[in-house]
Design brief:
single chain; 47% helix; D-Maltodextrin-Binding Protein, domain 2; six-stranded mixed β-sheet
Length: 358
Amino acid sequence: MKTSRNKLIAVLLSTTVIALLCACSKHMSGTISNDSNQGDHAPLRMAIAPYQDIALIMNEKQLGLEKKYGIKLEFVTVTGEELLSSLASAGQTVDVSYGLLNEYLAKSANINHEGDDRVIFLYPLFVFRGGGFVSFNPDVPELNSHTINDKALVKKFLSFKIGTPKSTWSEMMLFVLAKRTGIKLSDLHYTDIPLTDGLLAAENGSLDMTAAGLPQRNECLKRHGRVVFSMDTLGMGDIIGLACKESVYKKRKKDIESLIKLWIENANYSLSDPTHHCNPELAYLKANSSTKYTPEEFKTALGLEYFPKDIAEIQKEIISNNGKYSIDKATKTIDDYLIDIGTIKTPTPAPKLIELSK
């Protein structure tokens, strides 16, 4: 009897242990399954730089847009020069970044020279059209919509001492202007100089004019200088959109497409009343940017850019061949410039953009 009782106890204990092991295994299996699905809900890490247009994304948490679009965003601040290079880790550092079309086309051969996991320009968001040239010299003529076709005046303009960083949108402006006048870019005499240094050189007279982004443009006007040539006069603009690695887009396709829609809604809210709706943006710029904007200055700066209001407008004005800022036309201009300066030997096709529903 005692032996039988011991056997019964042993069987019961074995059954209990097996049941516990099964339950534990089931629980562990469920945990692993949840972890594997967690990748779909992990934060989408986005590289940003402290510029007035890029900062527009900063309202999204206040507006509850992450919940609305079913994503979670994590921002990583880098310099403007590091936006594209930050994508090299394919999701280890950041998942997506803003991308400037000019820079993407100029660097795509180098950043995509190894492996099959290419950096891709996904979709345009807005157009920077506030760049140009500024001057403190009263003898430098102004090129605007009324004078841009006066070849004699353009040649006079190009004869002055000019400063511009090489391989940038400002050198491209000189290329387009010179080409329209029958002059080769290589025949122009200009100084390779950073934007901030160029402004100081123009102010002290060692340059007659210099390239200027929005910060330099604003500083020039404060110091009683003039804007003598703007991007918009040539119908040019720097198209800015989202970029990422192909592998990241395949893995996070739904989140990235939601991000684009989130960005548009966020921008519409901020731009509807920049003076009162942009406190998060101004706080971010105050903490991270060398340019300290007042609300009115911020509003003025945003007025020098083009922000489509929805996907339909992006399609019409940027993606379409007939758009004011057609990405195909911009690509051709950039290719012509890159071939002229020897960066590439053959034209680069326009980026193959993702398709979004309106």
